[in-house]
Amino acid sequence: MDPTQPRTGEVDNQPPPFAPRDLWTHDVALREALAREGASVFADRVATYGALAGGTLYDLSFDAHRDRPRLRTHDARGERLDRVEFHPHYHAVMETAIAHGVAGLSWMEAATPGSHVARAALSYLHYQAEPGSSCPLTMTHAGVPVLRREPGLHEWASKAAAPHYDPREVPIQAKTGITLGMGMTEKQGGSDVRANTTTARPVPATGDDPGEPYALAGHKWFMSAPMSDGFLVLAQAPGGLTCFLMPRRLADGAKNAFALVRLKDKLGDWSNASSEVEFHGARAWRVGEEGRGIATILEMVMLTRLDCMLGSAGLMRMALDQAIHHCSHRVAFGKRLIDQPLMRNVLADLALEAEAALALSMRVARAVDAAPRDPSEAALARIATAIGKYWICKRTPAFASEALECIGGNGYVEESLLPRLYRQAPLNSIWEGSGNVQCLDVLRALSRDPGTGPALWQELQCDGGGEPCAAALQALRAPLHDKIPIPEPAARTFVESLAQTLQASILLRANNPLANHFVATRLATPHAQNYGTLPLEVPLEQILTRAR
Ligand SMILES: Cc1cc2nc3c(=O)[nH]c(=O)nc-3n(C[C@H](O)[C@H](O)[C@H](O)COP(=O)(O)OP(=O)(O)OC[C@H]3O[C@@H](n4cnc5c(N)ncnc54)[C@H](O)[C@@H]3O)c2cc1C
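^ Those are the sequences you sent over. The predicted structure of the assembly is below.
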């Protein structure tokens, strides 16, 4: 090579490949959280999945995401198919996830305390590798307790919890494992599901019906994972809005009477198919009483909301990990980026946010785990899910954008993971109840579920947090302890304060080495609008060492 000519083909000053990377070993905050929240007994299983998520699944995820699912409405003869075709790597991701318990570990190991916490850790790890497939995984997980309500649907519940993935289009009797979807949102109303117009008409039962049969007529404007074996659907029965299980295939193998109209052309979440669907007398079985549809499906929605928190915490972690990796190798202006003082501030600020997001998500997972045994934990799970769903999911888009910018131009290019994370980031804030809906739910919980205020107040113990924590608690005392209602327009400000005080409290009680920095930068002074604005006295080295 002629040394006088500018170099072209050589690669210099670019980081080595990010993967394979053991997402468990690298994540001290996750390892501590799993132990703290009572799931050490499952550590080996989570560790195994952490290695897979940052290795095999990470590799498979690129094709699963890029080669978007395609809808085939008809076959060559004009018969309706209503089938969605995926890249084979999507199926490989689903198979691995289900085999390792991302959808079912908490139900398969229900007798062991901590199983919900362990599955939460799996969900957090999975989202880092392939977030689109997290949608069917979480719906399958969350549908199980709803199906268990009906003795006739126990086969469905146990096959949804089973560690077997079987994408074949056959009746569930021929399968050892199944997946579930959910259909609530209609054109005229998503948040306000009472506006649903889909009807459910009772029809005569046959020997094949595992529950009371109805015929569904109407539509759903969003129904994700339409290749699922069954869907929990809301429809207007004679007695009011009711929950139903609608199978994809009937016991005799016939296709159920619903048609996939089209797949949504979405901003992100590309590996996951989200459909519009019409019901033409589709057979479905009632779950819960007529008129109790919202209450029945709420149990499912509470669990999917927890997964929104875990997913967003996972997305933060992966974005941070990518940013730190890049900045640890890239040199600009004579120093590695991670040694540039202002970049250190950005990365440390992101690390604080990611750690607090995980800590809150895993604490809520423990509350869910303990809920059947402890009414106070059940009350905490009820309200903290809405608090965390609002705050963590809302913080994620700005987080992803900042992490993307740390990587510079490469971060904006599809071959890096960051564009995928950036497109995915707003979604958890929208589905399963958007931001405002969560904030209003916090107010509703406080006014209607008398246990929630005391459970939250008890959790908000900020010993060691000094004056900033004491002041934050004092401000929350009136609504939580003295039951003074918060006006609706102030709900976001209130929930933001609850979320950050709760995060501080969890970190403080865990003796987390970053707890005081979190308090100092989130509670003591109002945090500046952008990341990278930590005050000068915060020890950036300590935070970055832990994050790495
Ligand atoms: C990719 C994707 C996949 C989806 N998959 C599914 C699925 O599988 N099954 C399913 O049932 N749904 C699904 N959804 C739908 C999703 O759950 C809804 O979009 C969501 O609940 C919001 O409902 P909406 O779109 O009707 O918006 P709207 O209800 O019209 O809400 C619009 C905005 O108004 C706010 N708002 C609503 N009420 C109030 C109020 N009282 N005060 C203040 N603000 C309010 C909301 O927070 C939101 O920000 C999916 C959505 C997306 C984007």
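The mean pLDDT is 96. The longest helix spans residues 293-329.

Shout if you want it in another format.
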